[in-house]
Amino acid sequence: MNKFRLSLLTLAMAGGGSLACSAVAQTTEQTPQSATQQSSNDSAATEQALDSVEVIQVRGFASSLFRSLDDKRFGDTVSETISADDLGALPDVSMADALTRLPGISAVRTGGQAAEINIRGMSGGFVFSTLNGREQVSTSGKRNIEFDQYPSELINSAAVYKSPKASLIEGGVAGTVELQTASPLRNEKQHTFTVNARGMYNDRADEVPDGVDFGHRFSLSYQGKFLNDTLGLAAGYARLYQPSVATQFVGLAYNGQKDTNDDGVNEFISEGFEIQHKGGEETRDGYMAALEWTPHDAFTLKADAFLSKFDKEAFARGFRVKFGGPTAALGNPTLNGRSVIGGTFNRTSSSFTRVEIVNDDNRDYDEVRSFGINADWDVTDTVNLSFDVSHSSAKSDFRNGLLWALVAEDANAATPVLDTNVSISYLLNGLNLPSVGFNQAEAFSDIDKVMVSKYGIYPFVNEDEVNAYRLDATWLLDMPVLASLEAGVRYSERTYKNDRSVFEYGSDGAFLNSQPPLRLTADMVEVVNFSGDFATYPSYLAIDLDAALNAWFPEGIPQPVQTWGTGNPDILPSQFNPTGPNTNWSVLQSGEVYEDVLAGYVMANLNSEVFGIPLTGNVGVRVVQTDQSATDLADVNGDPLRGAQNITDEAGLVNTRYAPGVLGEKYTDVLPQLNLNFGITDNSQIRFAAAKVISRPPINRLASNTSITISDDGEISGSSANSPFLRPFEANQFDLSYEYYVPAGAVAFALFYKDIKSFVNDFTIQEFDFAGAGFDVPEVIVDEDGIPRTTFNGAFSTAVNNGEGGYIRGAELAFTRVFDFLPEIWSGLGVSGSYSYTESEVSLINSLGGEPIETTFEGLSQDVFTGTVFWNYQGFDARVSARYRSPFVSSQVGIDEQITNFDSETVIDMQTSYDINDNFKLLFQVNNLTDEPTKSYFGDKAQTGTIQFFGRQFYFGAVYTF
Question: Rounded to an integer, what distance in angstroms lies between the CA atom of residue 108 and that of residue 103?
Answer without folding.
Answer: 16
